[in-house]
Automatic annotation (TrEMBL):
Keywords: Hydrolase. The lineage of its organism: Bacteria, Pseudomonadati, Pseudomonadota, Gammaproteobacteria, Pseudomonadales. This is Acyl-CoA thioesterase. One of its GO terms (cellular component) is cytosol. It comes from the Bacteria. Belongs to the acyl coenzyme A hydrolase family. Gene3D superfamilies: Hotdog Thioesterase. One of its GO terms (biological process) is fatty acid catabolic process.
Amino acid sequence: MNFHTRKWVKPEDLNPNGTLFGGSLLRWIDEEAAIYAIVQLGNQRVVTKYISEINFVSASRQGEIIELGITATEFGRTSITLQCEVRNKITRKSILTVDKMVFVNLGEDGLPAPHGRTEIKYIQDQFPDSAVE
Ligand SMILES: CC(C)(COP(=O)(O)OP(=O)(O)OC[C@H]1O[C@@H](n2cnc3c(N)ncnc32)[C@H](O)[C@@H]1OP(=O)(O)O)[C@@H](O)C(=O)NCCC(=O)NCCS
């Protein structure tokens, strides 16, 4: 699983209990997963179709640095299925897991379109000249 994006938990991300608000976390993970799907499928027109159970494993607090991880677990005909985890960057303690997020590849007509992809492509393979950290 690749943990690309880091977030610094700030006051505006908190719920009234002073811990990270679930809605903020879901917004971040949906965007991160959408970007992953766009890159993997080589198409900006992808939509979230399905999100399985979301397990808020542990709370995160203001000032913590967290990281968002995504990996593809299945390539369908028009869909891609992803697995997600959010964890504390320093302690690696798990904060959230989502077993299944399904994104659908759309054509110009807005209907599901075959994407032709069958396996994970790494940035280095897609853009050989790019420097990846
Ligand atoms: C995405 C959308 C076009 C798909 O339409 P649809 O009629 O369900 O399309 P299909 O039945 O052809 O299914 C498309 C793919 O989604 C998969 N799928 C459909 N329903 C699913 C479900 N409940 N769970 C998991 N996968 C599902 C299908 O298996 C298929 O994948 P495959 O081609 O790899 O086998 C339509 O549901 C839609 O527009 N939904 C709203 C999306 C949206 O607004 N998202 C939020 C903002 S991004």
